[in-house]
Amino acid sequence: MLDGSRGPAPQLAMQILVRMAEVYGADALMDITQAHIDSTIYLGDATLEFAERLAGLGAKVAVPTSLNVSGVDECGWKDWAVPAEWAGKAARQMLAYERMGTTPTWTCAPYQTKMRPAFGQQIAWGESNAIAFANSVIGARTERYPDLLDICCAITGRVPAVGLHLTENRAGQLLLRLADVPPALQEDAQFFAVLGHLVGKLSGELIPVIDGVTSIPTEDQLKAFSAAVASSGRVALFHMIGVTPEAPTLDAAFQGRAPQQTRTITMEDLRAARRELTTADGQPLDMVILGSPHFSPAEFAALAPLVAGKQRHPSVRFLITSGRFMKETAEKSGTLAPIVEFGAQITLDTCILASPMLPPEIKTLMTNSPKYAYYAPSLLNTRVTFGSLADCVRSAVEGRVVRDDSLWETR
Amino acid sequence: MSLLLHGRSVVAGSAEGEALVTHEALSFWGGYDFHTGTIIDKHHPLAGVSAAGRVLAVPFSKGSSTTTAVLLEAVRAGTAPAAILTTDVDSFFALASIVAGVMYARSFPVVALGARDFDALESGVRLVVEPDGTVRRV
Fold first, then answer.
1. Do B96 and A230 touch (CB under 8 A)?
2. Domains of chain A, with CATH numbers?
3. What is the mean pLDDT of chain A?
4. How close does chain A come to B134, measured CA to CA in Å?
5. Do B94 and A43 touch (CB under 8 A)?
6. Strand segments (E) across A20-91
7. What is the pLDDT of residue B2?
């Protein structure tokens, strides 16, 4: 590929990949069988020029490849504050990646589509939450691939043979023990999101192992954990004893080695972490925002009975960000109808962080997503209250922030 | 005080600028406004500070995979740091520089100093970064 005999696009992708193999200190490249492309996110002219340069050279992916969110909801952007120039350029960037023979999943939760990889599968994934989920919850194997490199891996079908692709590098390094965390709190819908936010901050560059989880998290709770741990930190793989597939026991998670560090997580640590996810104070509320990572069919199903027969307050918007396949599933199963009747809006294939869609009058948000709570204050200059799904619905109905803190702030 | 450090040159290049040092990891997506070169992560101690044209010392990248794309946009817009110094080799910063070289013939030096040498850095001093990974005060 490097000599150009396979065409100019594989040559360019391989040139970048070989430079990166040197950076990683890899002796060899290895095959992958799937990729997920985070480079789809339109930021400006540079991301567009990169995509169109590859597409213009005739680039085609060599392995089944899913696409992360784009910079625009092609069907719904006109309902929002997205500038027309942005929408046009973001759509061009979408087209460039579609022309490469990819599967247009347009979601940050590709593990909840038909493109979900299998345990042990060697993949090259971008998107920090998806990397953490694929490695940790599924046991597929990907390094923490950044934008611009993920597509080079997909075009060549190769990655540097290093890091989390190799068994010996997947052992836990940091032991985090939950101490005196009541089982009732572990059952709370916010627990794994808050724990993820905390673990990301505590982990530095180490692979964390969480011991002492007594409840069995749902897939969407592990999704929230993955998103949180990869926002507040750089975690690409975590082990949760008794929960994740490479961690049936402490010994298995550490591959028989001793932890490099050990730390206890207390109730007070968790309280402080939860407080950090809220930057708003008082009760004003402009919008409830759900779906980072994208709202799943199971999340639509959980929301439907909470909103059935109710109406959102006219002064509070209620937005769900999701992917086209997730919405279609919810539509078919009948869970979408009561949510729409409640007054919710759905944005597809992008999110409020990746598309400049919120009008300036929206200043205070409420969410159950730790990723939205982490990034919205910096990226959107909004203030955020973090709460449970039930808190979000109740607040939308009452038109002001209402939150049940009883499990968290008293013992 | 003189300062002479020899790091691993991850992406080779020359740069000179005022040091901006932090011990907290940074995600450029949600953390760096490429239109201005300002650090915008409200959780970060350098929030509100411009890193454009400076020698940015940050131990490692965290958070979003899109950090690399934000840095590429910053290079194109002329708002990127002049060089980035890290503790260990950071693949995100390296990739951004390599692709900036491919796309715009404008890579920037990336040097991994190791934790001890990294700790010798302080904000405000003027640093020169050389292609072999040497970092010295001028």
1. no
2. 8-167 (3.30.499), 171-276 (no CATH), 287-409 (3.30.499.10)
3. 97
4. 18
5. no
6. 29-31, 34-37, 65-67
7. 84
Distance (Å, whole) CA A113 – CA A241: 26
pLDDT interval class at B98 (50, 70, 90): very high
One DSSP character per residue, A148-183 reads TTHHHHHHHTEEES-GGGSGGGGS--EEEEE-S--H
Gyration radius of chain B over CA positions: 13
Could B69 and A39 be called an inter-chain contact, meaning their C-beta atoms sit closer than 8 Å? yes
Structural domains of chain B sorted by starting position, each given as residue range(s) with its CATH number in brackets: 4-137 (3.50.30.10)
CB contact under 8 A, A45 and B98: no
Q: Is residue A411 scored above 70 in pLDDT?
A: no
Query: Which active-site residues of B does the annotation give?
Result: 64
- Give the gap in angstroms from C-alpha A37 to the nearest C-alpha of chain B: 10
Phi/psi of residue A281, nearest 5 degrees: -135, 160
Smallest CA–CA distance, residue A147 to chain B, in Å, is 5
Report chain B residues touching chain A, CB-CB < 8 A: 10-11, 25, 27, 30-31, 34, 40-43, 47, 60-70, 72-73, 75-77, 88-89, 91-92, 94-96, 98-99, 102-104
Grouping H, G, I as helix, E, B as strand and the rest as coil, residue A50 is helix
- Give the model's pLDDT for residue A173: 98
B119 membership: H or E segment, kind and range: helix B115-119
Please report, rounded to a whole number, the percentage of residues in chain A having pLDDT higher than 90: 99
pLDDT in tens, A328-340: 999 999 999 999 9
Residues of chain A with Cβ-Cβ distance to B95 below 8 Å are 16, 20, 23, 146, 148-149
Residue-wise pLDDT tens digits, A252-284: 999 999 999 999 999 999 999 999 999 999 899
Q: Which residues pair with A34 in a beta bridge?
A: A123
Q: Residue A315 contacts by C-beta under 8 Å, 6 or more apart in sequence?
A: A286, A399
Q: Is A144's CB within 8 Å of B65's CB?
A: yes
Q: Give A312-327 pLDDT, tens digit per residue.
A: 999 999 999 999 999 9
pLDDT, tens digit (0-9, with 9 covering 90-100), for B15-53? 999 999 999 999 999 999 999 999 999 999 999 999 999
Q: From CA A257, how far away is CA A277, in angstroms rounded?
A: 34
Bridge-based pairing state of the strands B15-21 and B126-129: antiparallel
Chosen for mutation from B28, B40, B58, B64 (greatest number of chain A CBs closer than 10 Å) is: B64
